[in-house]
Structures are given as C-alpha cells and as structure tokens.
C-alpha cells in the first residue's frame, strides 16, 4: 500500500482522464492520495474530487504564489472548508522566494494566518519552501506550528534543516527529484531521515521521476519514488511502503484507516 501525500489532481492537466489516472494509481498499489489546494477555487475542486473517490482526500489553503492581496473572506473560506470530513490538512502553504509572486512580508503574513487557522481547526500543515529556508524555519518556530505538526513537502534542503523541522514534529517528504541522476545530495539526506518521519509524494503533475522526466507526472509514479527510497535505505519496497503509509496515517488523522 502506497500513500501519495501530495498530488494536485485538481490541476487542469487531469481534466480529461482523471478516472484513468486514479485507476493506474490503484493498479500500482496507491491506496490513498492527498490533494493540496493552492487557492480557494482549487480547494473546492480538490474537495469535489475527494468526495467522489474513496481513498482520496483534500487539503485547503493559499499557496505563496497566490499570496498577493488575499481577501479576508478567503481565509474565512479556508477555515470553513477545513471542517469538511475529507479535508485532512491546511495546505499547500509556505514561502516561495524563487518566483516572488507576492512581496515576502505578505507571503509571511499569509502563511502565519493559515498556521493560526490550522491551530484553531487542529489540522496539520503542508509546507512549501523554495529558497526561503531560514524564514520558513523561523516562522514555524515562532508561530507555534509544532502544535499541529505537518509535512515539509518535496524536501531538498540539508539534513540539519530536516532535523530542525523534525524537532518541531514535522515529517519529511520526498518526491521525483530523489530519482534524478544528479540528486546525490537529496538521496544522502533521504537515506538518513528516521523511518518514522519519512513520507512519499509525487507533486503531480510536476517533478516526474526518472525515467519519465518531461512527461506529466501522476500518482501511480509514487511507486518509483518509493522504490528509489527503499534502494538507498537498504530496505524492501514493501517495508518502505508500509512505513510511509503508517507515517502518513499518523499525521493525517482524518484519513480512514480501513479503506
């Protein structure tokens, strides 16, 4: 059993063949998927897909690339949607200093407000970090994010950064880049994450694992991520799958265990 903890099935790239995508995922042993939103409209789409498909869940939140001029009613709507039985996290939230689509203080404010929402509704957070590591770690510490915990999605930082995040109760998730030929640094970190803090994801339709780079990613390919992680950690695929699924269930407590 595999658990794709981060897959944007609400993306327009899946409009025409979503049923086939989900069927292929099931054929590869993917039994559970979390769809993180990037804004309020995609949150509604993610929930609709989750409602229609067993084993599929949603996260709701405003991504840093959508953090410019967020109206107050959007935060209220995120909090309202968080009450839905198939919403298991607040996300995808965080900071992105690569695109800088919103001023950095504004990104930080939007993230802080959503951490506060997570604390009120008692859901974990899904954290996006791109070229903003120092500020992300500081914000997680001083916002009290350890009260709800969460996942550092598509992790690509150092082991020391991972340790700081794990000290706050966060899980470390790896996706397609761990399979890339020149990603030795990522693999070295992944080999040293404690087994009980490790998660797998695809970030579909992005970051397609080797040997399918350049093609649309989809949740079935989380198996390739898991196979690579099992290889570098010296365990079987079945052991890696069981451990990462157990970890995801411990984090996303609203996910049904009997599906």
TrEMBL record:
One Pfam family it belongs to: TatD_DNase
Organism superkingdom: Bacteria
Coiled coil: none
Gene3D superfamilies: Metal-dependent hydrolases
GO molecular function: hydrolase activity
PROSITE patterns from the UniProt entry: TATD_3
Alphabetically ordered keywords of this record: Hydrolase, Metal-binding
Protein name: TatD family hydrolase
Provenance organism: Alicyclobacillus dauci
Lineage, opening ranks: Bacteria, Bacillati, Bacillota, Bacilli, Bacillales
